[in-house]
Amino acid sequence: xxxxxxxxxxxxxxxxxxxxxxxxxxxxxxxxxxxxxxxxxxxxxxxxxxxxxxxxxxxxxxxxxxxxxxxxxxxxxxxxxxxxxxxxxxxxxxxxxxxxxxxxxxxxxxxxxxxxxxxxxxxxxxxxxxxxx
Length: 133
Hints:
Keywords: Membrane, Transmembrane, Transmembrane helix. The chain crosses the membrane at residues 7-29, 41-62, 74-95, 107-128. The protein has one domain (2-132). The chain has four helices and no strands. It has helices at residues 2-24, 33-60, 66-91, 99-132. α1 packs antiparallel against α2.
């Protein structure tokens, strides 16, 4: 029963975190500091929530559940890929002298690092399960 609750809570966390990041993403390209700061914190928070959901889901999925196992593995690989791509995209703006560029690129850079590290932790959880069986 508890695994069912954790599974659904993890899926809701992944969906909510991803939706929050997608909602805040357009505001990160604004020139106004209020938009950048107002969207940056929720963007990083959405990355934390989505990463925590993905990591929690990797801890409870069983090897016999082929679909869920492959879904978690592809979700982790997607998280790593998008996180690293987001970090590389933001890297060029982190060398700017404008404060708006620094704030606008700093939050997505941190969000990308969080998502990529959550993907790596998820893959390591799946690998440990596979090695222990």
